[in-house]
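A reminder before we start the practical. When you read a complex entry, don't treat the lines as separate problems. The point of joint prediction is that each chain is placed relative to the others, so the output describes one connected object in space. Small molecules and nucleic acid strands, if listed, are placed in the same frame. In the example below there are two entries. Take a minute to note the order of the lines before looking further.
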Amino acid sequence: MKEKLVIIGNGMAPGRALEKLLELKPDAYDITIFNAEPRVNYDRIMLSPVLSGEKQFDDIVIHGDAWYIKHGIMLYKGCKVTSIDRESKTVTAASGLVEPYDKLVIATGSVPFIIPVPGNNLAGVLTYRDLDDVHAMMLAARSRGRAVVIGGGLLGLEAAAGLNEQGMDVTVVHLMPTLMERQLDPAAGYLLAEAIKARGIKVVTGANTRQIVGDKRVTGVELTDGRVLPADLVIMAVGIRPNAALAREAGLAVNRGVVVDAQMHTSDPSIYALGECAEVEGACFGLVAPLYDMANVLAAQLAGDNVATFKAEVTATRLKVTGINLYSAGDFAEGEDRDEIVLRDAAAGVYKRLILRNNVIIGTVLYGETSDGPWFFDLMRKQTDTEALRDTLIFGQAYQGGFPLDPMAAVAALPDDAEICGCNGVCKSRITSTISAKGLTSLDDVRAHTKASASCGSCTGLVEKLLQLTLGDSYNPAAVQPMCKCTDLGHDEVRRLIIAKGLKSIPAVMQQLEWKTSCGCAKCRPALNYYLLSDWPGEYVDDGQSRFINERVHANIQKDGTYSVVPRMWGGVTSPKELRAIADVADKFGIPTVKVTGGQRIDLLGVKKEDLPGVWADLNAAGMVSGAAYAKGLRTVKTCVGSEWCRFGTQDSTGLGIRLEKFMWGSWTPAKVKMAVSGCPRNCAEATCKDVGVICVDSGYDIQFAGAAGLDIKGTELLCHADTEDETLEIVAALVQLYREQGRYLERIYKWAKRVGTASIKANVVDDLEKRRRYHERFVLSQKFAQIDPWEERINGKDAHEFAALAEFGMPLPVEQA
Amino acid sequence: MSDWIEIGRLSDIPRRGARCVNTSSGRIAIFRTMVDQVFAIDNRCAHKGGPLSEGIVHGGSVTCPLHNWVYDLETGEAQGADEGRVRTYAVEVVDGRIFMAPDIALVAAGQ
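Here is the predicted structure of the whole assembly.
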């Protein structure tokens, strides 16, 4: 019979230990985990990007439910262990469940330190520790009120930046004179404070909290100098302390944390402890690298290897706030026996400092430009004598040897044991040898097999270069295709950041996302204009100069510079009055060609640009509006005559087509959207090759989507069945809204569907009625600002400059040169 | 500048936009960039005669609306892999008013 291993806690350290144990000795134990949090193991380091809106919880899950099932591990979620009985070797949970163990691992982590001041238990005072805290903060942030973050360390600043991104007015209160004083020297602390302030976050240093003010709910924070900072939310982020209560009650040796030896044994030989709750040689740890080292030692122990021991090593720190680069490692206090090298570039916001003793680097602080951090860290760990490098050392690895190395050569020059991933302690040779041995070809592969770049992700660039070096030309960074030459970001990334950072203008996007050109190009500007229009309905002001000429003048440019004009014919139905108006317009303006289109309407071709407003005015007068035949938006809804005339018709397909078109016209979409409604499965309206098609049947309406009949020919896929016209309208609107929010500019529905998968689309607009309702609601909202006839606007003078020359010289132009 | 010809005001042209000056021998496109530089070039793309004034203006360049040729507004040279050029004209902005060099009169006369 297998030994029974029970683990109390399901954080990153025990998760890593289990992974390693399953690798070393897959079937050694019958494993049970108690997690006080009601969820799986996730990457706690990445809570800050979740708070700022840059990531979702799903993105930071380390082990999904399937992983536990696959390895036969029993995971109790939301189940807190309340006592350990060492005599009978059992643990008891709050639910009353009693579980026996042969070996027990205590991994209870840490609890946030609550400063002992009056008012610290008021409603609205939160800590920053787990996903529940993040959710509570995001909820509180919806009020757009004022937040005070107590603590200007790593955690406090990440919380402050996240709440600021969520729209709160944030003040950071810090006891010491400079921020992050444990990781940064005062100069870098000052630069950091300036960068934090530049984001609109207030910073109060040297500030001691006297009490938290409020009656039931927090209203402010009072400092010892008498100042009161108003607050609707207070976050305590002053530090953590090991959560050793359970071990203490069980009678184990406990100081600050649960005392363990270098092999993770507690004072009871059957019980181990690791992670933030453990204390080794008088020290407790909070950064992930040493915790993962403990995990490796514990896994070795459990697998029967008694050689591995834990040794505390220096670790490096990075701040995870988008746009702020800082890196620090080692000891950077000033002293008699120490030298330092400092480089400052105020204009570029760069500060680099190396602290040396006997020519050996013992500490480094980098701000603004941190790419050499791992190299300095490597020199520090190896205690390399840097005397020969001294003159150029501060300029970084690229300048060694007299001329700058290109970044690829710099990575190639790193020694095999150079640490690439600080979070997971992965060195260069482990990555390159795994790539070769396992035939890895992508970043995701490397993450899966080595864990490098799988935690905070700041070494992703290095890992990609190693892939390139190891695989040579065969490495194809499936990576993101940049939007255009103006940026390295892909469409999805840009869309995500527009929302996450609340960017509401093209200049804001270009500034915040570090566009490489001052004014974009003809590829990115129309895309950005669409994304902003789609994401901020009613707020974003359309930028006509970022639209292709057709959408700027609401007509289709032809090869000779003239335009074609297509009025809407709702559902393909017209009338004698409309036809007469069209005929009159064609005569009056000498329009050379009148043609019926494939979408059941009439095209007037060869209209001179300056005649456009006149043509529109006459068509408008007859009740016709722009057909948007030029738009990345809703084009036509083609119909057959349906039950009104046809002997086979099952429903009123013409009526439904008109309803759909009247509901959806004016909407801007990533690419054009063509629709059709057929009255029976004979499908005379050809609905099964449209972006969205409806086939009427006796029992209702089959909603089809993702067809194509252009460059590609593709039949539609069935999305779902609807019983009524109203339901059909709601589903189609939700589908189109999902596409509007996820589609890449110029990506038709069938390509989008292929990329995101039909299942995910169905999950959003078919299976989950609540989600469907929300997408539909957002579509309806955006239509409020979209259903304005552009022709009428221009007849009334909008963009008049488009339709008249600036000046005329000499004789009037002959027609063929117009 | 006494014999230069005023063709309009800077504010008549939108930023990152263009308008035309019509002459008897063709149109000249007058561009205004994001930073209020003004350039004048022939309104006919060297490729298929596309109206360059209808293109998207980015930095000091314009992209032709027909087949995406990109021109440097200052030199009239096609950029990237495409080869060709369009004629450029001297323009000056004084006090928000746009002036063209007198050779516009010769162009207007078809010479």
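Discuss with your neighbour: Residues 812-818 of chain A have pLDDT under 50 and may be disordered. What might explain this?
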